[in-house]
Amino acid sequence: MSTLRAAGVTEVPEPLGLDDEGREVLSYLPGVVGNYPMPSWIWSPTILHEAGSLLRRVHDASAPLAHTAAIWQLPAHEPIEVVCLNDVAPYNMVFQDGHITGLIDVDMASPGPRIWDLAYLAYRLVPLGEYADPDAPDWDARPGRLDALIRAYGYGFDQAAVLRAAADRMEDLAVFTDQRAADTGRNDFLEHAAQYRRDRDRLVEMIARPWAS
Predict the structure, then answer these.
(1) CATH: 3.90.79.10, 3.40.50.10490, 3.90.1200.10, 3.40.50.300. Which one for 2-208?
(2) 203: CB partners within 8 A, 6+ apart
């Protein structure tokens, strides 16, 4: 995070060193976190635009680290372009007065392609999966929201590429969650993995027949 802050990305915590037990100490980012159930304002166009723009700034600032000899908690994904945060979503964002003011919980970052992070952000914030939230945008609004997020990020991705990456991300997440279920014996992880695979199948269908209901 020191690299990001040195590049002017002040929306991440500032590293303050280690405590007496060797744990990293970070500065506190004031605000509220976008926990479920989501507040209605989380779906505003402003949040969507700010999320895409902030992710682009984080990626650009992280690019020098992507090819360094470092140890990451998660495996890298090819092609390596930037350092992906791997969990860019409202529950890892800090908000104040209807604006994004911070990104937190970046310890699972690892090198990968830009679209890997953007696709997961789209999955959570467009959104691209099934949501019980009554305030979530209707399906007919989501193609425009995906376009808006891509424009905010400012890179030449098309919708199909983002949907394909999101489908791959769901399968990767399902495999990871299956392993967590095996390691912990928690059946709720199996339920989460099944949901990720249902969303993966829907995304694959959307690529062939966009935005099917």
Answers:
(1) 3.90.1200.10
(2) 128, 163, 164, 166, 167, 170
